[in-house]
Amino acid sequence: MSTDAYEQGKLAFQHNHPMSSCEYPVGSPLRAAWMDGWTTARNAAPGGASGDHPGMMADARRAARVGQPDVHES
Length: 74
Description:
This protein is mostly helical. It is built from three helices and no strands. It has helices at residues 5-14, 29-44, 57-64. The protein is globular, with a radius of gyration of 15 Å. The termini are far apart.
């Protein structure tokens, strides 16, 4: 595992870890570097910032609908 926080953040995104998985303390420079790495990897991924990624809000919305019937307007 990389010891550089920026690279750790990039690897976290590439391995489908959500941004919330960062374990560095809030307000620390290491957390900021980790978040920058994660965000850089997300923006470089196909679909960029709008692409679906495990742990992001689109997945949370889908998970909230599990087991509910699909409603279609006609």
